[in-house]
Structures are given as C-alpha cells and as structure tokens.
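Hi C.,

You asked whether I'd gotten around to modeling the 331-residue construct. I have! Everything is below, sequence then structure, no commentary in between.
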Amino acid sequence: MPKTKKEWSKLLLKTFIVIIGTILVAFGNVAFLVPLDINAGGLSGIAIIARVFVQNEANKVLVYNLIISIASVILWLIGLFFVGKDFAIKTLVATIVFPAANWLFTACPGISDSIIKFGNLVKEGAGGPTAGNFLIASVFGGFFVGFGVAVTFIGGGSTGGVDVITFLFEKYLRIKQSIASFLVDGSIIVIGLITFLIKDNSYLMPCLSGIISAFITALVIEIVYIGSQTSYQVDVISDKWEEISKFAQDELGRGATIITAKGGYQGADRPILRIVFDRRQYNKIRSFIAKVDPKAFVTYTRTNAVFGEGFKAHRNKNLFIKENKKEKDGK
C-alpha cells in the first residue's frame, strides 16, 4: 500500500484513469453496439446474445445489466482463486465500475434517457437500420471500446471480464494471451452468429458488424496503448557522426553512445553512434542525417519501452500490483 502523500496521489490518479477508461468502454457498448445488437465479443457480447431472446424492452435492459453484473463478479472470483491476487487487484476497479456504468447508462433516469435517445438516433438515423447504420455503429462503438481499454491499460488496470479466461488459457494450456483473446472473443461472436441466425436471418448484419467492431477495437488499442509507448533506437555509421551526435544533444535533448566496431571488409575501426528517441523526433533525426551525410549507413529499431533518464523511470508504475518485498529490500 502507498505510504507517502505522493504515492497516494499517484494511486488516486491511476484509479481515476482506470475509471474513465472503463466508463468509455461501457459508453461504447451501450450507445453504439447494444441498440443494434452488434456482438463484438466480451461480456457485452454475451449479454447481447441473451437479450435478443427477450421481447419487452425494459426486460432487455434488465437482462443485459444482470448478466454483465453477475458475470463480472463470477469471473473476478475465478480470477482471484485460479489466476492470483495480483490479477484480482488489477481488475477490481473495472469489475465494480463497468457494471455500475452500464446500469447508469441504461437504467438511471435522466442520464439513461439521453443515452437511449442517442442510441435510437444511431439505429434509426437514416430511416434504418440500414447497412450504413450498422457500419457507423460498429466503427464508433469499436473506437470507444478500444480507446477505453487502452486508457485502462495506461492507468495500470485491466477491464477484467473475459480477460480471466485468457489468463487461464495461458496458465494451464500455455496459449498466448493474444491468441486466447482472439479465441474467446471469436467464439462469442460465432456463438452469437449461430444463435441469432437460428432465431432470425435478419441478424446476419449485426453479427458481421461485430467482426468489424472487434477489429477496430484491437486497432485502437494497438495505436493508443502500444503506440504511446513506442520509442526508436538508431545506429549510425557515418564520417559526420560528431555532427549527428551534437544535433541529438542540442536539438533533441538526447544523449548518444559511441560504440567502437571493426569493419568486416577492410578490418578498419569505425564508430557506431547509437541514439534513443521517441516517435515524435523520428522525422527530425532522419531528415538531419539525410542532410549532413546522405551516404550514412543507418538502421532504425522500434522499441516498446525504454527506461532511464529522459524516458520512463525504473520503478513499478502499476500501483495496482504490490511490489515484491524482497525486491524492495534489495535481496
């Protein structure tokens, strides 16, 4: 647990970020996907499959929220006992906030009325539902869900839900989480497709739209979460290495490392200049190298994380996971 005021401030900030991300996920589902019964996987996909078989609209809302609430708690308990307390702590905030946000957006007078009206506009805006309605809903729904998940990850949390199943796949079946996530969400979509088509052929469009939405979600997570952490490393072999090093220090604020290497052809010693920088500086350094030495031999390497001065600090940024006491004691 945090001990200092600074640590508590960081914990509160990260908790707030996770809450915002989780609310965005709920909004994306309720405002765009649910009105058109678009099944893009996850807990929402399971709840959408169930609500299709309910006739009364009020009962649809009740069934949707009950399934998400009950399933969230059950999956969290499974995660606690079979995955571990670290996972449980990491997903606790989302396990509470996600069902609460769904109830807020669908059953709270005032707020839910506005969301429902917006959902009806998404559904019937073009006299639909037409293919255009489904496409717009799947794209925007996928965007909000993906952005919300990415924000939650940035805050050091997790959306929980069916994520516990992917952790179990990894732990007991040795299946990578990325593959397990695809299998789980894909299974939910396929089950929905089969179930819906047995009930009514008109559900083909929302099922296919769910695939588009799932793809958009994955793409947004990749751009926002993975892309936000991307840095680059450049290795330069050039006679103008001193100028390039000076540019990196004076213009980019980046240090440089000089590595002495021996050429394989003539056996001559050549300096290799290594610089690490963030993605915003990529075009600057590339243009400068091309300007001062067009014949320079340059390799760019994309990295997912860099720790040290000018980048991330060497500490556990995820305050939802308790640090190992032995590591803290330096043992």
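If it helps when you're writing up: The chain is about 65% helix and 10% strand.

Thanks,
B.
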